[in-house]
Predict the 3D structure of the following.
Amino acid sequence: MKVRKDGSSPYYTNKAVRAKIDKLLSKNSEIWSNLGTGTPLDKGTREEGEKEWGAIAEKIKELDHVFFKRVCPYGIDS
């Protein structure tokens, strides 16, 4: 995503970007809330959940790196 000259995050200025990021964050919430439940949405292990979160975080970074830095200030693995 292109950076705005004023430095503001596209998450707060672009409705389409916000909707996509919100959907990704909802998927992340679904991963962690179902961990260990034995349901079809359960990833099984924390490592699998971390792997899924890494993929989601990369998509967020592609959409809006300013917002990504707020969500993951120390990177994905921290």
